[in-house]
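User: Please fill in residues for this 57-position structure.
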């Protein structure tokens, strides 16, 4: 299985307005938007996705 998921965000911290878009691209295909999340939840999810977790040894 080979799949690519793309995440994009446009967010204004002053107004707490914005949108997070999730796209999916299969091999040799264009990008399809599969979900869009708006408001503060968009920023929360984006922060979870980009925050590195400690590596367990």
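Assistant: Residues filled in for all 57 positions:
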């Amino acid at each position: 299985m080979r799949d690519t998921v793309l995440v994009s965000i446009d967010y204004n911290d002053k107004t707490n307005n914005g949108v997070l878009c999730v796209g999916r691209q299969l091999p040799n295909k264009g990008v399809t938007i599969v979900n869009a999340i708006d408001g503060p939840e968009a920023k929360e999810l984006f922060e979870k996705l980009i925050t590195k977790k400690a590596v367990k040894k």
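For context: The chain has one helix and three strands.
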